Amino acid sequence: MTVMDKFLDSYVHQGLRKKLIQILRTRGISDERVLQAMSEIPRQHFVAAGLDRIVYEDRAIPIDADQTISQPYTVAFMSQLLKIEKRDKVLELGTGSGYQAIVLAKLGASVYTVERQESLFKKTSAMLKEMGYSGIRTFLRDGSNGLSDQAPFDKIIVTAALDEVPQALLEQLRTGGYLIAPVGQPIQELQLIHKKAQNDYAIERHGDFRFVPVLSGIKRNNFN
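^ thats the sequence. predicted structure below, dont judge the formating
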């Protein structure tokens, strides 16, 4: 099987994706750039073959390492709030399937993405290259404290639940930049934080969501 065969996008999947974009519009996603990006990404490639139809439903779907690919609305909503501009340097904490990273890249961002699960990191890193997204920089790290050696960042997106936003992440955000993260337990409040100046932050609150929690440490493959 060639790479082209592996990532074929059938008319059925294209039709399901078109319906999904319509659903996102009805739910209030109005950023045409975000909708266009998501309309171009074959979401079925990020899940197991048996889940390729339900992946276009507006819900989270299980992937490897007991993780999920986020609900499409959540991906669209967080991406819309960040207002990505071309050449923005963006840190993503929680690579997962790689889907959100590709959305950010299609919006013009230079993406640095961190994953703590070694098996997922290896699988997703390889797939991103196969799909032609070698410009997305992937890191196997404990992402709870960010990626200080690559800072500062224009935008930071956290795709797992935080008890509170670590000071280390705020320090890695460029003045004028934005950080978006789900905060709290057991239900999270989606917070958009604007770094107006050093130690001066404005917080917008955007409703309740459910995410898997941020975990510390690197989860190595069992055979290592």
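The chain has one domain: 3-209.
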